Amino acid sequence: xxxxxxxxxxxxxxxxxxxxxxxxxxxxxxxxxxxxxxxxxxxxxxxxxxxxxxxxxxxxxxxxxxxxxxxxxxxxxxxxxxxxxxxxxxxxxxxxxxxxxxxxxxxxxxxxxxxxxxxxxxxxxxxxxxxxxxxxxxxxxxxxxxxxxxxxxxxxxxxxxxxxxxxxxxxxxxxxxxxxxxxxxxxxxxxxxxxxxxxxxxxxxxxxxxxxxxxxxxxxxxxxxxxxxxxxxxxxxxxxxxxxxxxxxxxxxxxxxxxxxxxxxxxxxxxxxxxxxxxxxxxxxxxxxxxxxxxxxxxxxxxxxxxxxxxxxxxxxxxxxxxxxxxxxxxxxxxxxxxxxxxxxxxxxxxxxxxxxxxxxxxxxxxxxxxxxxxxxxxxxxxxxxxxxxxxxxxxxxxxxxxxxxxxxxxxxxxxxxxxxxxxxxxxxxxxxxxxxxxxxxxxxxxxxxxxxxxxxxxxxxx
Length: 463
Prior knowledge:
By secondary structure, the chain is mainly alpha-helical. It is built from 20 helices and six strands. The strands form three sheets. The chain has a two-stranded antiparallel sheet. It has a two-stranded parallel ribbon with strand order 3-4. A two-stranded antiparallel sheet has the order 5-6.
């Protein structure tokens, strides 16, 4: 069978050109969306009197039979039909003859592929939301489990201040919360139906674009036909959201790799998320965490590829746009898998409080708290900062902690300070005192968890 567009051509395509031009090897994934769009289009054509009701029934039945064949794996795809749109339409024409040829009235592959892609990406966003909600629930449960368990907070990879593990986990909760919000924003901008924009300028046929938009579950039709077929920024936006979220996943994975190392030993990752060495029998490698850390690179690549494809394309449609699919499929698949793997790995990871406790006395974690305590006693903060810095220096010289400094030594640093003035400077007291909104005190962490659960419940209901 000749190509559906071959009327003005005297020669067929070179074999290597046919293969290079075809997208059916990957865009067949869109078959369900393509058939949904075609059914909606056929119903609108009948409603507008462009085809008869009987022709519409035949087309809808024929498309349903094609879908069933593809579902069963009985449909033969060929590069001669180059893409999913021509594959389905060719099969319909073969089944229905002249009636099948009427389906493509008042549409182009340019708007057809766009409606397919928008339907597909909306479905993927629904699944991604579910995966993000799952991960957020895991983080909340884990944060609650460790709401009052103290660990080390780092800056510049150096001991900084004591924090609770629940507090640390809630930081990631906020990152993934924004990832979910970005998905919802992305959905709103792609929730417009391009079907009926045709090649680039609309059509002279009396179509009803609102009818097809509502039939397919879109908010409304797109406003400008030329923009409708040449726009791919919703794909770029989804890839951008994927890249940001994968960055968050990679950061968490990196911390898991660090915490799992012998030098830290802060966590025990479940065996089911680790592998061994082919030569070193003692090894338990955090391979899933390392893969999560590495997968971000391919998603970044998918985003950069799409940005590069689009940067030099004049209006309206260009064949370059065919390159929008593989990267999007890859990024979304990678993102979904990574979210689920991370969630399940966190679920089965336990913090080794005995090992963490061994590190809490190192690095003068309570230094800032002492400076703030002095400031509350009337010492200007910059002076308090300098006093504590001198206390650190003296402790390092003596090889001791703040609590070991005598009143004489404290007075030698500044006559205003004494052990009584410092009060309770234990690590636990420092953590418990950080009750400022968003702080690390267990009471405040539990408030964050409760707030997070309320937000997540609303987010899950919005799916």
